[in-house]
Amino acid sequence: MRRILTVFMLCLCSVCTCLPTQQAHAFIITVVIKEAIKKVVKAVDLAIQKIQTKTIKLQAAQKVLENTLSKLKLKEIATWNDSSRVIYTKYFNELAKVKNVISYYQKIKDIIGIQKSIISDYKQALLVLQQDPHFTPQEAQHLLEVYGGILQQAGNNVDELMLVISSFKTTMSDAMRLELISKVHDQMLRNQSDLRRFNAQNRMLSLYRTKGANEVDLMRRLYGLH
């Protein structure tokens, strides 16, 4: 994901140098919205599909284990021989592992929710920038470069997320897995905070440059202010 976005931004810059400033501005907006975001959304959707598939399988396994334990009639544990106790312990431990992994997947789903919110905010910000007349082409290009950096970090977040998902196939310890999940979660929140703070700064600058009641009303509608 990181490599794809880097190559994309380099190609974008090279194309834009061949275009007039105003035309390049419109070109950047269109391409970033339709292509760069699409790549991140596709990666997030893939992560969601993997989580949903794995969760369904784990929930089915959990049900089987719970039914098996129920059939062992726990009230008769005292009469079991050593072999029965070993079997019970094995099923009990497997059930605990399954429940533990399901809880991890729930945390990952929460992280994906944050990432989807970031993408939504990012798309809205670019659409607003496309319609806001209060930024010069040079300013708009600078804003887009900053948004490009934020989008790059969003791609990195997805890479980290996929690493978390694949970690369940390795011998990674629970402590390491929790640390990785926490790291990705914190990165997502910082990314979201940076994007929203940047959007707020741009909104304030645009409103400061707004003149006339009609234009103020237009900008308030554009930015969703009431």
Q: How is the secondary structure organized here?
A:
Blueprint: H1 2-16, H2 21-71, H3 82-131, H4 137-166, H5 174-208, H6 213-222
What does this structure look like?
This protein has 226 residues and is mainly α. The chain has one domain. The chain is 85% helix and 0% strand. It is built from six helices and no strands. The chain has helices at residues 2-16, 21-71, 82-131, 137-166, 174-208, 213-222. Helix 1 (2-16) packs antiparallel against helix 4 (137-166) and helix 3 packs parallel to helix 5 (174-208). The chain is elongated, with a radius of gyration of 25 Å. The relative contact order is 0.12. Mean pLDDT is 74; it is low at 7-12 and 14-20.
List keywords for this structure.
6 helices, 226 residues, mainly alpha, 85% helix, signal, Conjugal transfer protein TraI, single chain, elongated, 0% strand
- How many helices? The count is 6
The fraction of residues in strands falls at: under 5%
Quaternary:
single chain
- Could you give a short account of the major beta sheet? none
Number of domains: 1
Structural classification: mainly alpha
In short:
This protein has 226 residues and is mainly α. The chain has helices spanning 2-16, 21-71, 82-131, 137-166, 174-208, 213-222. Helices cover 85% and strands 0% of the residues.
